Amino acid sequence: MKLPTAQELPAEVRATIGQWGPENVAPVVLDRMFLDHWCEVFQDSNPLYTDDAYAAKSRHGVRIAPPIAMMAMTMQLTWRPAHILAQLPPAQKPALTPYLYLRQNYKLGGAVATFLGPEFHRPIKLGDRLRNRSRLISIEGPRATGVGEGYAVKQEMEWRNQNGELVGTNKIQTFIYEAGPRPPEKLVHGFLPGIYEDASSYKLPPHLAGEKPMQTLVFENTPLMLYRAAAAMRDWNIYHVDNEHVRAHGGVVSMYNSLLCTLSYFNRFADDWTNGEYDLRKIEGPECALLHPGDTIRIEGAVTKRYTQGNEEFVEMAAVMRTQAWTVMPAKLVVSRPK
Q1: What is the distance between the alpha carbons of residues 295 and 265, in angstroms, rounded to a whole number?
Q2: pLDDT tens readout for residues 307-336
Q3: Is residue 1 part of a domain?
Q4: How far apart are CA 133 and CA 218, in angstroms?
Q5: pLDDT digit string, tens, across residues 20-73
Q6: What 8-state DSSP symbol labels residue 277?
Q7: How many other C-beta atoms can be found within 10 angstroms of the C-beta atom of residue 68?
Q8: Least crowded by CB within 10 Å, which of 152, 309, 312, 325?
Q9: φ, ψ for residue 303 (rounded to 5)?
Q10: In degrees rounded to 5, what are phi and psi of residue 167?
Q11: 177 neighbors 150 (Cβ within 8 angstroms)
């Protein structure tokens, strides 16, 4: 089936570009079980997340969540009874955006992130219930790639707490496509030609003189890790847990980590350096390869800048995630604390 250009989409579908969609209310509140499960999976020992006594004496007064958890908390239930769905008001039912229209009508099941830019404005505290909304900024295509034909999509998202306070935002770019079945020798590992930029030549900038070194983080990416992460993040996307489906519809060798996993590894990397003294404020960078079970993941970094803005002290870091074969993501991390 020939894919339409963005300009050929129905007028009512194109009209949704730039419009905020309905708010999704998180089906969970932040509790200790959610926090403990998350920290167990990523082995994140930040005392702000794990230690009630430490957190009570901290600037926050209570345990908080890893900032990336905002994306997981608003993951909706994968099943609801029909009588509950029928009770939802129209405002809670998503509009048929170009993104949804193309995925539903042209079976574009594959979706990979190509740029991630979450920013964190306010901590998520025990008892908080978040809500989020999103809007489509642009859609370009179709274009052919090494794994299939599809579209480049830019979206913006925001999360607020039960008091309406802005918790965080994310500007994300993805590529949606349908690869279809292909012989095993044609399946791709890690780098997706035509979708990802080659970051193999990336080099970390010099570490700022006098700053505490950043400890390299190394761990093995196993199938069990992906399943445990899916449970902790409540993200059971079939591309992250089902090898056969991915091979048949994604054009790659096996299931792969979600963008939430990738960002959570950077969250853990920053936490190892801050040890609760700073809050993570930003992660930004292009995703340049997929992470598969069997990959050895290595994150290195350097402190590059320290400055004061208002009543806060900021530290910027450059970091890079690599496997044995690919540079997965070079990223800019920002942390801050009160002066």
Answers
A1: 14
A2: 999 999 999 999 999 999 999 999 999 999
A3: no
A4: 35
A5: 988 889 989 999 999 999 999 999 999 999 999 999 999 999 999 999 999 999
A6: S
A7: 26
A8: 309
A9: -75, 130
A10: -95, -45
A11: yes
